[in-house]
Write a structure and sequence with these properties.
Order of helices and strands: EHEHEEEHHHE
Largest sheet: 4 strands, parallel
Oligomer: single chain
Radius of gyration: 14 Å
Structural class: alpha/beta
Helix content: 25-40%
Strand order of the largest sheet: 2-1-3-6
Shape: globular
């Protein structure tokens, strides 16, 4: 992973060239230094109460988010909800309230966009 940018985009879609990606690309013309984290390129396991997936990419992504001042969550809407990739990622944020509390607390103050 490259170093983080002031704006980090967590992109959760099955199609990198779909409508959400086109909207994101148009939006980011005003923030060319933004770093896009395409969840399709990372391994983020589902949340589990035993926290057995700590070796996947989730914590690395969370650390990149920590280095930014703004976080954009970009996802298409499927059947009136976010994509499975984004749902899995957001479910894992629970790790930041349970086993990685210092990292979770350090994210306080970031501006988030959907």
């Amino acid at each position: 992973m490259r170093s983080a940018a002031p704006v980090v985009v967590v992109f959760g879609s099955s199609r990198r060239n779909g409508d959400t990606a086109r909207l994101l690309d148009a939006t980011l013309q005003k923030a060319p230094a933004a770093q896009i984290i395409d969840l399709a390129e990372y391994s983020v396991a589902p949340y589990d109460y035993g926290h057995r997936h700590h070796a996947d990419d989730f914590l690395n992504i969370a650390r990149i988010m920590l280095e930014s001042y703004a976080i954009v969550f970009a996802t298409p809407v499927y059947w009136s909800t976010m994509s499975a990739q984004m749902k899995t990622f957001l479910d894992r944020m629970t790790d930041l309230t349970e086993i990685e509390k210092p990292l979770g607390r350090a994210l306080a103050g970031r501006t988030g966009f959907l």
